[in-house]
Design a protein that fits this description.
two-stranded antiparallel ribbon; two-stranded antiparallel sheet; 277 residues; 10% strand; mainly alpha; 58% helix
């Protein structure tokens, strides 16, 4: 992988791979919007002539342990259908856009978790006298460092990694609260983890118990950035628009750059890698 002069190739590669993931998610958001905009306009223009137009799909599956026909799997209708009438097409497109926005943020969050593990592993590989990862030999390869960090931190949230990066970098400690966005980076990221959990496990609903356990700063972030009109004191219903998801992808990419910058400073490597810096 080509990288700018003076940077740490180990750190930059991890950072660059993460940005590749974010730009795909970001690009697909607007790709979906543009495709469905054209489709919706086409459907609306045809509605007067085709008032009963339907878009439909049925779920047909096979019985994996059932009988076959000369070795060919037999298929059966489950009785489940998905039907959208032309008059409801626009609202269904909006629903799809929300699902795509939610999906993109979830994917960016999950990928960022891997990014944190890999870039911390890369830093520790370059600074073996400072710290070693559990279960990794001192003279192990960079790949071994990354695999070990992923394996032995696979079930944790990222609180421990944030604590470790604070130990590694004074620039990170200072910038967590003293930054141009005027935000508490750790609290914002923890609020995003609540969003991710709700989307994956609770159909996008942040329930009262969770709201009662998080900090007031995180509550403010949730209400200010991710809360829709159905928000109340009892719950938060997460339905992100394309614009909110796009802003979130940008912010989490900025957080990745922040980590890359701080760790690069610690090892005396160039961190100005963006055009115009």
């Amino acid at each position: 992988m080509n990288h700018p002069t003076g940077v740490s190739s180990e750190l930059y590669e991890v950072y660059s791979v993460y940005l590749d993931r974010v730009i795909v998610l970001k690009g697909m958001l607007y790709h979906v919007v543009n495709i469905f905009k054209d489709k919706s306009e086409s459907i609306v223009s045809r509605e007067n002539n085709l008032p009963n137009f339907l878009s439909a799909s049925s779920l047909v599956i096979g019985d994996l342990t059932g009988p076959d026909e000369d070795g060919w799997k037999l298929y059966y209708h489950t009785g489940k259908n998905y039907i959208v009438q032309s008059k409801l097409y626009e609202s269904e497109i909006r629903n799809y856009e929300v699902r795509e926005a939610n999906y993109s943020v979830i994917q960016a969050y999950e990928s960022f978790s891997t990014f944190l593990k890999d870039i911390v592993a890369s830093y520790l590989f370059l600074n073996k006298d400072f710290h070693s990862i559990k279960h990794v030999e001192y003279n192990s390869s960079l790949i071994d460092y990354k695999e070990s960090m992923r394996k032995y931190n696979s079930g944790r949230n990222n609180k421990d990694l944030f604590k470790l990066i604070r130990e590694l970098s004074g620039s990170f400690r200072n910038g967590e609260n003293n930054n141009g966005a005027g935000m508490d980076i750790y609290e914002w990221y923890q609020a995003l983890s609540v969003i991710r959990h709700a989307l994956v496990h609770s159909e996008g609903v942040i329930k009262g118990k969770t709201i009662g356990e998080i900090s007031s700063t995180q509550k403010g972030i949730l209400h200010g950035e991710f809360c829709d009109k159905t928000c109340s004191n009892g719950y938060i219903n997460v339905n992100m628009t394309i614009d909110v998801a796009d802003k979130t992808l940008e912010r989490i990419a900025e957080l990745a750059y922040f980590v890359f910058k701080c760790l690069s400073i610690e090892i005396g490597k160039e961190w100005r890698v963006m055009k115009g810096q």
